[in-house]
């Protein structure tokens, strides 16, 4: 059964990694896809693979730091398909630098891409969803919103902001029947899974490093039409790592 047949799913950062897998997963479920990224070549490959499933894909090169491009991109999607049912705010980036050296420009670039971009995509997609009896928004945050490594202040702040934005949007958009949730992935291997060591896997309580499919299945769960009692939550998918106590030897 194709639960998402003819649904319109917009995914940012769909040229590779988690975004690409999520896009192909929805396509296999019969959805029509709107895929965004700055990587033309990667987008073209994702679009080709979506079309091979029999689904339709609208591919747009969008820079999330440009508000006008976001507004135009949502409008283009609505003109093409007449609706947007699901938005997956997946695109994001980081800048690793000492707290003493991180520039204002780099800080703004990360925040504007990850946090402001998520807000603007959600705001514009919600305008369309509201006219079509509601929809679902998933914001891809990170376990780095809950715990940190050194020199990741901009990334951590952006992902923490996404969690707060998620519950705020859930409250504001609830009356319009728009469910808003977040997913916080831990270590999700987007490259060659066979290159991981036994230690990489065993340090996770679940016994393995995450895969992009793990996030895609969570998206299907949170956007299932029957799960309209789930909103404002953050689903941590990290193999249990944020619950593991670690002591120095």
Automatic annotation (TrEMBL):
The keyword Oxidoreductase applies. Keywords: Oxidoreductase. GO terms for molecular function: oxidoreductase activity, acting on the CH-OH group of donors, NAD or NADP as acceptor. Pfam families: adh_short_C2. InterPro entries: NAD(P)-bd_dom_sf (IPR036291), Sc_DH/Rdtase_CS (IPR020904), SDR_fam (IPR002347). Belongs to the short-chain dehydrogenases/reductases (SDR) family. This is SDR family oxidoreductase. It comes from Dyadobacter psychrotolerans.
